[in-house]
Specification:
Length: about 300
């Protein structure tokens, strides 16, 4: 049990803050209290802060300067993550949580690495599947069995996020993202969307892929799938990897990782991001039978430090 509760300051008060992080921290009140919420939109800052008993403001510096903020939670648009992570490291904060993606270029990621090493600041990235306790236990069992992955398939089929967001919170209208369609004949725009699909969605499954298959091999094909998704095939001499996603649809949420080896098959079904429903449901099947892995806490809850800061 921690000796005290740590103060959290949010940079960004949009849908991830409202529908994911505030509900998760509400389950961990003995460990964390939200003290500040910053958004460039004063109404979002004030209302989101009011809902969690924090102070709202429009100035990023308010979070950095406030000694009551020990942990900075960066939930702003992707393009400013790296700058804000670096600023929070330099401000002497004890821990930084940054929503994925941590950075949008390799140069940004390297700069974060240099800064965090110099300041000694731990950084946790909101790649919740990588922290999912049932997935972690199943992956450890796979490694212990010394199994090789011959085929990996990561699939994401989700309905509109609004379906979950409206159940998780009462979203502020001005924090809704404006989503544009993809003009079918505009190649530059489609490339931009493919980049967004990888940094926004495929990135969740990349740490999992690396668990089983540290060397990616060659990208054999890669296509953006409208309205929003991707189909990516990778291969090496030893293994084949397929990444497939499509949203939004009217189908039930289905976010799955399937890993096939010679003696074992692992299937992990992850709950959608906005649903606080415990861990993934993971099954390892082999000739001798099946083992099921399930835990009461989600990857987001599991990634939170368990001792006081
Ligand atoms: N892990 C997940 O499953 C998951 C799910 C959704 C979003 N995300 C990530 O969370 C982040 C936020 O996404 P969202 O859905 O909340 O977006 P959003 O557009 O709903 O909210 C972003 C908020 O950031 C504010 N903002 C803009 N510039 C800012 C700045 N410089 N400093 C502070 N705040 C600023 C905006 O006013 C807005 O309120 C993104 O990086 C996204 O990739 C992760």
């Amino acid at each position: 049990m921690p000796d005290k509760s740590s103060g959290v300051g949010f940079l960004g008060g949009g849908l991830a803050t409202q529908a994911i992080h505030i509900p998760v921290l509400a389950t961990l009140r003995d460990r964390f209290n939200i003290v500040r919420v910053v958004s460039p939109d004063p109404r979002v800052a004030a209302e989101v802060a009011r809902r969690c008993g924090a102070k709202g403001s429009t100035r990023e510096q308010d979070v950095l300067d406030d000694p009551a903020v020990e942990i900075v939670a960066i939930c702003s648009p992707d393009a400013v993550h790296a700058r804000q992570v670096i600023a929070a490291c330099k401000a002497g904060k004890k821990l930084i949580f940054c929503e994925k993606p941590l950075a949008v270029t390799r140069a940004e990621a390297e700069e974060i690495g240099r800064t965090a090493r110099a300041t000694g600041t731990p950084i946790v990235v909101g790649a919740m599947h990588a922290y999912d306790p049932a997935y972690r236990a199943a992956q450890a069992a796979w490694a212990e069995a010394q199994e090789q992955a011959d085929f990996i398939q990561a699939t994401v089929f989700l309905p509109s996020n609004d379906v979950f967001i409206n159940q998780a919170t009462d979203p502020l209208p001005s924090s809704r993202m404006q989503r544009a369609g993809v003009p079918g004949d505009d190649l530059a725009f489609r490339r931009l969307f493919m980049r967004g699909a990888i940094l926004g969605l495929a990135i969740h499954d990349i740490p999992l892929l690396r668990d089983f298959y540290p060397s990616v091999g060659t990208v054999v094909s890669s296509r953006f799938l409208p309205p929003f998704g991707y189909s990516i095939s990778m291969a090496s001499r030893d293994a084949q990897v397929e990444f497939l996603a499509l949203l939004p649809g009217t189908w039930p949420a289905d976010w799955r990782l399937r890993v096939m080896g010679r003696r074992h098959e692992l299937t992990a079904s992850f709950p959608p991001s906005y649903v606080l429903a415990g861990s993934a449901h993971v099954v390892i099947s082999r000739a001798q039978g099946t083992t099921v892995f399930e835990e009461p806490v989600s990857g987001y809850q599991a990634m939170c430090p368990t001792s006081g800061m």
